[in-house]
C-alpha cells in the first residue's frame, strides 16, 4: 500500500525542523545537539525509508536521501559517524540503542519520559532482565565504566552473541549506554550506567505522580515532540519513529487532540493545530 504524498506545507515544515535544507545542514557536534534538542529524538544513520528525523539526513541537508551501498567511502556517512562519536563523548544528549534496537538520540527534556515507558524500576530488574543482562549490569554497577572486552570477561558472559544480546537488552531498558569509543589498537566501546551520566534526568519524575499517570504523560510528550517536528503524523508514523506501539502512540496523539495541540484529520492521521489553523 503506497502512502499518499504529504502536503507541501508539511514537507517544508519538515525541511526546516529536520534540517533537510542545505542552508540548515549540520556540520558540527554543537549543531547536532541543537538539532536533537529541537526535535526531541532522532535516528542516527537512517534515510527517507525510515520514519522520523535523522542525523544523517540533517548532515546531508536534503529532503530525498538514500544511504549509499558503499558507506565506507561516502563523505556524508563518514561525517555522520564522526559527529555521532563526538556527541556521545560530550554527553549532553542521550545516545543508545533504544526500542527496536535502533541507535537513537534523545534530548535531555525527554529522557524522563522515555524512561517512564521503557526503564524498569530496580526492584523489577530480576523479573524483566535476562540472566546475562543482570550479570553485565552487576559488573557495571561495581566498576561504572569498562571497555567491551573487559566487560565481557568480568561478567562471565563470554559468548559473543549472548553478550551482544545482553548489552542490547540493557540499552533498550535504558540501563546502560556507550559513553566513548576507541578505534586503536582495536575497536571498542566504553560502557557505563545511564544513571551515572544522566542521573538527574532519570531520577526526575514526570508529573503527575504514579506509575500509570507518569506513563500516560510520557506518551503524550513523546507524541508531542514528534508532531512538533513532523507537522503531521500519518498512520503508524509516530509509532515507527519513536519505537512506541501503535496503541501507545495513539494514546499520546489522542491526548494532544484533547488539549487542542493537534487536530485529528481522520483515523490515525494528526496535524499540528497551529499549522492547520495558520
Can you describe this structure?
The chain is α+β, with helices and mostly antiparallel strands and 278 residues long. The protein folds into three domains: 8-108, no CATH class; 120-202, Winged helix-like DNA-binding domain superfamily/Winged helix DNA-binding domain (Arc Repressor Mutant, subunit A); 207-277, Orthogonal Bundle (Arc Repressor Mutant, subunit A), CATH 1.10.10. The protein is 52% helix and 14% strand. It has 15 helices and nine strands. The chain has helices at residues 8-17, 29-39, 55-60, 75-90, 108-118, 125-128, 131-143, 148-155, 160-172, 194-197, 199-203, 211-230, 237-242, 246-258, 273-277; strands at residues 41-43, 94-97, 103-106, 145-147, 176-182, 188-193, 232-233, 262-266, 269-272. The strands form three sheets. The chain has a three-stranded antiparallel sheet. β5 and β6 form a beta hairpin. The model has no long low-confidence stretch (mean pLDDT 93).
Task: State the gist of this model.
With 278 residues, the chain is an alpha+beta fold.
**How are the strands of the largest sheet arranged?**
1-3-2
Helix and strand content put the structural class at alpha+beta
Number of helices: 15
Instruction: Give the tally of β-strands.
Output: 9
Radius of gyration: 19 Å
SSE layout:
Layout: H1 8-17, H2 29-39, E1 41-43, H3 55-60, H4 75-90, E2 94-97, E3 103-106, H5 108-118, H6 125-128, H7 131-143, E4 145-147, H8 148-155, H9 160-172, E5 176-182, E6 188-193, H10 194-197, H11 199-203, H12 211-230, E7 232-233, H13 237-242, H14 246-258, E8 262-266, E9 269-272, H15 273-277
Antiparallel strand pairs: 1-3, 2-3, 4-6, 5-6, 7-9, 8-9
Helix pairs in contact: 2-4, 5-12, 7-8, 7-9, 12-14
Amino acid at each position: 500500500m503506497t502512502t499518499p504524498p504529504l502536503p507541501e506545507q508539511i514537507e517544508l515544515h519538515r525541511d526546516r525542523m529536520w534540517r533537510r535544507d542545505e542552508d540548515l545542514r549540520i556540520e558540527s557536534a554543537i549543531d547536532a545537539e541543537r538539532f536533537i534538542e529541537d526535535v526531541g529524538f532522532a535516528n542516527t544513520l537512517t534515510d527517507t525509508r525510515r520514519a522520523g528525523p535523522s542525523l544523517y539526513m540533517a548532515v546531508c541537508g536534503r529532503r530525498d536521501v538514500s544511504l549509499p551501498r558503499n558507506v565506507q567511502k561516502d563523505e556524508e556517512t563518514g561525517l555522520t559517524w564522526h559527529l555521532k562519536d563526538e556527541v556521545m563523548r560530550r554527553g549532553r544528549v542521550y545516545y543508545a540503542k533504544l526500542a527496536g534496537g535502533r541507535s537513537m538520540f534523545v534530548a535531555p527534556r525527554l529522557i524522563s519520559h522515555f524512561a517512564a515507558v521503557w526503564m524498569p524500576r530496580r526492584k523489577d530488574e530480576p523479573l524483566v532482565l535476562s540472566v546475562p543482562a543482570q550479570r553485565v549490569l552487576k559488573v557495571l554497577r561495581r566498576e561504572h565504566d569498562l571497555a567491551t572486552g573487559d566487560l565481557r570477561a568480568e561478567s562471565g558472559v563470554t559468548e559473543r552473541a549472548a553478550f551482544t544480546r545482553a548489552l542490547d537488552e540493557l540499552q533498550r531498558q535504558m540501563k546502560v549506554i556507550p559513553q566513548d569509543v576507541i578505534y586503536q589498537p582495536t575497536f571498542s566501546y566504553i560502557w557505563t550506567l545511564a544513571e551515572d551520566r544522566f542521573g538527574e534526568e532519570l531520577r526526575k519524575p514526570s508529573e503527575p505522580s504514579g506509575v500509570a499517570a507518569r506513563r500516560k504523560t510520557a506518551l503524550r510528550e513523546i507524541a508531542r515532540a514528534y508532531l512538533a517536528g513532523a507537522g503531521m503524523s500519518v498512520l503508524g508514523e509516530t509509532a515507527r519513529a519513536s519505537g512506541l506501539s501503535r496503541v501507545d502512540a495513539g494514546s499520546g496523539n489522542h491526548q494532544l487532540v484533547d488539549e487542542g495541540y493537534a487536530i485529528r484529520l481522520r483515523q490515525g492521521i494528526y496535524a499540528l493545530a497551529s499549522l492547520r489553523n495558520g
